[in-house]
Write a structure and sequence with these properties.
Length: 152
Amino acid sequence: MPEYVRTVISHLHSLVTTPTTVSRRASLPLTISLLAVNQRGGAVIRAVSAGRTHDLSRTGLSFIVGSLRVGNSHIFYDLTPKLLVRIELPSGPVEMYVKPVRFDSWGGGETDSNFIVGVRIVEISRGDRARYTEFLRGRRSTLADVINSASS
């Protein structure tokens, strides 16, 4: 019984405190675009690749892709001016400029391995930030959810 009470109190505490980081695991379609600057100073899409999100947070995200190459460029080793990510949220797409910070092999064997890529968000519009943050927050737990999860 004391364990049950401690679990319920812990869950209630998590409901009333404000988390310092909001994150969510989700598998959503995304596209990665490498942008270049043309002679007039405008952005031009050089290449596009597709993947799926894995983990999303307020300051960054990770995604799964089949290759670290987008077109003829490597997203880590080739100096690209901008990396644009477009995530298809249920409420509509959001776009953000990101900086890759890590990558690793993900699942599969030697012939069908994917990669997990971690990126930091460097720029996102105010409207896209609001919808992205709302998605991260997701459904809020209720007191009934806390009691039901503690008793199971």
